[in-house]
Design a protein that fits this description.
The structure holds two protein chains of two kinds.
Chain A: E1 5-7, E2 10-13, E3 19-24, E4 31-37, E5 44-50, E6 53-56, E7 65-68, E8 75-79, E9 88-95, E10 102-103, E11 107-111
Parallel strand pairs in A: 2-11
Antiparallel strand pairs in A: 1-3, 3-8, 4-5, 4-9, 5-6, 7-8, 9-10, 9-11
Chain B: E1 3-6, E2 11-14, E3 19-21, E4 23-26, E5 31-38, E6 44-50, E7 56-59, E8 62-65, E9 75-77, E10 86-94, E11 102-104, E12 108-113
Parallel strand pairs in B: 2-12
Antiparallel strand pairs in B: 1-4, 3-9, 5-6, 5-10, 7-8, 8-9, 10-11, 10-12
The chains are: A mainly beta, B mainly beta.
Chain lengths: 112, 114
Amino acid sequence: GAGVSQSPRYKVAKRGQDVALRCDPISGHVSLFWYQQALGQGPEFLTYFQNEAQLDKSGLPSDRFFAERPEGSVSTLKIQRTQQEDSAVYLCASSLSRAEAFFGQGTRLTVV
Amino acid sequence: GDSVTQMEGPVTLSEEAFLTINCTYTATGYPSLFWYVQYPGEGLQLLLKATKADDKGSNKGFEATYRKETTSFHLEKGSVQVSDSAVYFCALSDRKNRDDKIIFGKGTRLHILP
């Protein structure tokens, strides 16, 4: 596609429910990032992939958060046993190595 | 660790006013510096960037100069328009890291009044 696509755009989850957020990067982009953006804050880094390899997961806030990119293209961010503090916009970005990062429109997760 | 500090908003200006949004950074390596913009209802977009000291990034009338001596990358525009109303994020990517992760400031919301 023309840009980074994320789905769903909006997700409401009951506390304790598991969720999966999908990111389709720009075709051919090697690097893929996930960020978490709380209301009124800047994006906070979660994790980074280079092709299928997860090179940096230092930003994942707990072991309830898990990301994968098994074939080096589409990526999924999974959150287990969601809690209210997980409510945020989750942003995905992709880039050619060490080039401009292109962001998707994000998935707004609300945990009730 | 690496970090970015930018002026808090919201900033409210009249159309055609001069804009400055301050940004300073802390990095141990040789960062590239960016300004991203988030228009209402849209995703983050790169506005401009600079990759080394004294470089000036520019786009859509906005400018920012990479000042290593003051560790700053202030965003400026000579005459703002209503359509510039958005949230602006200063950011860096430190090339000493093995990944390209971008570290963002908290953002500055800009309101331009007609």
